[in-house]
Amino acid sequence: MKVLVLENSRLYQKTLRELLQEVGCSADCVGSGEEGLELLDSNDYSLIIAGQNIFDDSGSAFIEYCRQHADHCPILLLTSEPNETLLNNARSAGIKDIFPKANLGQLRDSIHYYI
Predict the structure, then answer these.
(1) CA dihedral sign, ordered 50, 53, 55, 59
(2) Number of structural domains, the chain?
(3) Alpha-carbon distance 31 to 89, whole Å?
(4) pLDDT digit string (tens) for 72-100?
(5) What is the pLDDT of residues 9-40, one digit of tens each?
(6) Which ranges constitute the DSSP H helices of 1-115?
(7) Quick check: helix, strand or coil at residue 34?
């Protein structure tokens, strides 16, 4: 299984890559929606994991593109600061699940569920 990770923190990219390898997945890690679009066009992903920065301008374009061209691929959102506005925006954008960055165990369980 191949997973696309959109996360602007290199530390979390490394952490997520290691977590995904533990569960038998390979990961492509990028720091923006724009970079994600480039990879999405040339790869077939089973899952997308995105940091809350996905809601910047390039991230919004990425989410819209996913809804039009890769609707089969669930998107999971990682956040360090969950708040009601972010949760509402994520749900209305089609994000499947939202996780605090500090709870990687819950994320691991969800990865198993979606792949």
Answers:
(1) negative
(2) 1
(3) 20
(4) 889 888 888 777 877 777 788 788 888 88
(5) 899 999 999 999 999 999 999 998 888 889 98
(6) 10-22, 33-42, 57-69, 84-93, 104-114
(7) helix
Task: List the structure tokens of 91.
Answer: 């749900």
Output the pTM of the full model.
0.86
Task: Report which residue type is found at 17.
Answer: R
Edge-to-edge, what's the strand order for the sheet holding 97-100? 26-30, 2-6, 47-51, 75-79, 97-100
Residue 77 structure tokens: 């959102």
Residue 7 domain boundaries: 2-114
User: Domain of 64: which CATH number?
Assistant: 3.40.50.2300
CA distances from 100 to 1, 33, 71, 79, 106 (A): 23, 20, 24, 5, 9
- Determine the 3-state secondary structure of 47 from DSSP: strand
